[in-house]
Design goal:
The complex is a heterodimer of chains A (286) and B (362). With 286 residues, chain A is an all-alpha fold. Helix content of chain A is 85%, strand content 0%. Chain A is built from 13 helices and no strands. Chain A starts with a helix and ends in an 11-residue tail after the last helix. Chain B has 362 residues and is α/β, with parallel strands linked by helices. Chain B has 2 domains: 210 residues, P-loop containing nucleotide triphosphate hydrolases (Rossmann fold, 3-Layer(aba) Sandwich), CATH 3.40.50.300; 78 residues, CBS domain Like (Alpha-Beta Complex). In chain B, helix 7 crosses helix 8 and helix 15 packs antiparallel against helix 16. The longest helix of chain B has 18 residues. Chain B is globular and about 75 Å long. The chains are: A mainly alpha (286), B alpha/beta (362). At the A-B interface, helix 10 and helix 11 of A face helix 4, strand 6 and helix 6 of B.
Chain lengths: 286, 362
């Protein structure tokens, strides 16, 4: 009896809070839902409306012209695999879901990460929050997300964002802390305004570590996609869930490999797009 | 401000500048102001480290001013105080007559961009940019249009002899060439003052000497002033018009190379200068005997028949002259009048670093 009295149960306080949010901020959450659905729907429409062959061709050509031949080959192989595995629609849904989730994660994590590298107190405050976000099993925050946004793609994306923010944020802070001190001094000594120091000195020197952060963000978001299948987000996650519940090894394996294909594709594309055409110190001169 | 073209115009003026690092620095400063504590007392009482203690220095237009000190002597802190990369704890720093502590952020940026260039020991080139883009960096952040800044940067790179390397990346250049890019970047902004923070310390000896000579020649021909930090006294002597010697945050002595070598202010400085060759530093005027004194010593010598030289001739030249003549003395002539005689004994005293007169008297 006594043990019951002192038992700590945060759910007792959280559940009413979620209810209250639901009751009072319903229009806001509704708008968020509509916005995310619209963006997702738009991307999916672009990817799914034309024939898969057209999409693959365009993607390969874009990769070849904007990035390089290697990435173009990787694009062709991974997209062809998704098509041949019979999971084209699900793959494109997942692609859209992850792209939107990663985009939102990065837009939250990147500026916060920079601020955390500038203000040590913010970093100290964020660290336990990030630890909690990373260690609490993601199913747990699917619960309030579903309570607020109901079933579908939106709670899945919210849970994916929560899962994708910590690695990006931590690595952004690390990347900015690692910018050589003499380069920062150079920026100040030449009278560069803070914006120029950020854009021309800090971000270029932080890029390698930032890319690792982006890579981690993408991979963890894709891992969440499987869970997203549980709350009805569709895509490859739903296929994996179906394989699991029906004990269909073949379906589960195909869907799993398709997730890997999408992961590799997203990673190479994002890296290539951010680094440009091999510009950098290692480039051979003409 | 009517002294713009005056060669003696003071460009950089430090008055009683202190920098104290540590959690309790503000209290320590107050104690310095009120009680005049020493470095040791500040460390004991407040657990604060004194980076620079009561520094006073003036750099004049067109002058190369060397600050020499070993690591931890506060020389790098002092040079960073001059462009306010580090805020002074106490004291006043004036650049071109403006108190830099009173500038706001934008004015400070403007002053750094226009008046004070800086070259770093680590060179600090941006790895993803070509040599040309690096040299144009200072102008780029000031918003100078692309064509114009590349034109200026190209001219600066030509001055440092890198005309053929503009499209390369820093990693393709040797250490010496990278430092030339650093210098070109500072020159491109056309500042009056260039702060050099141990720029040649990491280079090998031959390249270092070459760059020292080039730097001195370039600075003089462009009429720039420079504050040059080094831990190498020979470098300071080669480059500097005047040298300040720092120890534990305190400027121990300021003077020309000759003054420092011939009249070291304390044991620390004399220990430093002990190994320095005096042959090109000590001049005739500091080793010569008055003509009358020479004549009483050697009454049979005809002073008019001696070879003649100027008071500014260094010991190396004097040795050459003595070897060429068949006598062991050289006459020093200034404005047509004979002002003194340099004897072989005087030369040897000059090389050994002992004042000539003491030995003669003995």
């Amino acid at each position: 009896m006594n043990a019951d009295l002192i038992r700590f149960s945060p759910g007792v306080y959280l559940a009413p809070a979620v209810d209250w949010l639901n009751a009072n901020f319903h229009p806001f959450f509704d708008a968020v839902t509509k916005l995310i659905e619209a963006v997702l729907g738009g991307i999916e429409a672009v990817l799914l409306y034309p024939s898969p062959y057209v999409v693959i061709l365009v993607a390969v050509l874009l990769a070849a012209f904007l990035i390089n031949f290697r990435v173009a080959v990787i694009t062709a192989v991974s997209l062809a695999f998704c098509l041949l595995a019979g999971l084209w629609t699900a793959s494109m849904q997942t692609f859209a879901l992850v792209t939107v989730a990663v985009f939102i994660s990065v837009s939250i994590a990147f500026p916060l990460g920079i601020l955390a590298s500038r203000y040590k107190s913010l970093e100290a405050g964020l660290r336990p929050v990030l630890d909690i976000m990373q260690t609490v099993p993601p199913w747990v925050y699917l619960i309030p997300a579903v309570m607020i946004f109901s079933l579908g793609r939106v709670p899945a994306i919210i849970a994916t964002i929560v899962y994708g923010i910590p690695p990006m944020l931590r690595l952004t802070t690390l990347a900015f802390n690692q910018v050589p001190k003499d380069l920062l001094e150079l920026g100040q000594a030449t009278g560069a305004p803070p914006r120029a120091i950020l854009l021309k000195i800090e971000i270029p020197s932080a890029t390698p570590t930032l890319l690792v952060g982006l890579n981690q963000c993408i991979l963890l978001s894709l891992a969440m996609v499987v869970l997203a299948g549980l709350v009805g987000a569709g895509g490859l996650g739903a296929e994996v869930t179906r394989g699991l519940t029906r004990m269909e090894m073949g379906l589960g394996l195909r869907a799993g490999l398709a997730i890997v294909a999408i992961a590799i594709l997203l990673d190479r594309l994002s890296k290539g797009a951010l680094q440009g055409r091999g510009r950098g110190p290692t480039r051979a001169t003409h | 401000m009517n002294t713009i073209n005056n060669a003696n115009e003071v460009l950089v003026d430090c008055q009683n500048v202190w920098k104290i690092f540590g959690a309790r620095a503000p209290t320590a400063i107050r104690a310095v102001e009120e009680r005049g504590l020493s470095k040791k007392q500040i460390l004991e009482e407040f657990d604060c480290v004194v980076g620079v203690a009561n520094a006073n220095l003036q750099v004049r237009r067109g002058e190369i001013f060397c600050i020499m000190g070993l690591s931890g002597s506060g020389k790098s802190t002092l040079v960073r105080l001059l462009n306010r990369l580090i805020e002074p704890s106490l004291g006043q720093i004036t650049i071109k007559g403006k108190d830099i502590a009173k500038l706001n952020a934008a004015e400070l940026r403007d002053m750094r961009a226009r008046n004070i260039g800086m070259v770093f020991q680590s060179v600090a080139l941006l790895p993803g940019r070509t040599v040309l883009e690096n040299a144009a960096f200072g102008l780029e952040v000031r918003g100078v249009p692309r064509d114009e800044r590349y034109k200026i940067a190209r001219a600066a790179l030509e001055k440092v002899g890198l005309a053929d390397w503009m499209a390369r990346y820093p990693s393709e250049l040797s250490g010496g060439m990278q430092q030339r890019v650093g210098l070109a970047r500072a020159l491109a902004a056309d500042p009056e003052i260039i702060l050099m923070d141990e720029p040649f310390s990491a280079l090998d000896p031959l390249i270092r000497r070459q760059l020292q000579d080039e730097f001195r020649q370039l600075t003089k021909s462009l009429g720039k002033s420079s504050v040059f930090i080094t831990h190498d006294l020979e470098e300071a002597i080669r480059i500097g018009d005047r040298i300040a010697i720092m120890k534990d945050g305190v400027i121990v002595q300021v003077g020309t190379a000759e003054e420092i070598v011939t009249q070291p202010a304390d044991d620390y400085v004399s220990e430093f200068v002990a190994g320095i060759s005096r042959i090109h530093l000590v001049k005739a005027h500091s080793v010569m005997l008055p003509v009358a004194e020479f004549q009483t010593l050697q009454p049979h010598c005809d002073v008019e028949a001696l070879l003649k030289t100027s008071p500014e001739a260094d010991i190396g030249e004097l040795i050459d002259l003595t070897m060429r003549s068949n006598r062991d003395a050289v006459a020093v002539v200034e404005n047509g009048a004979m002002v003194g005689i340099v004897t072989t004994r005087g030369l040897l005293c000059g090389v050994a670093g002992t004042p000539a007169r003491e030995l003669v008297a003995a």
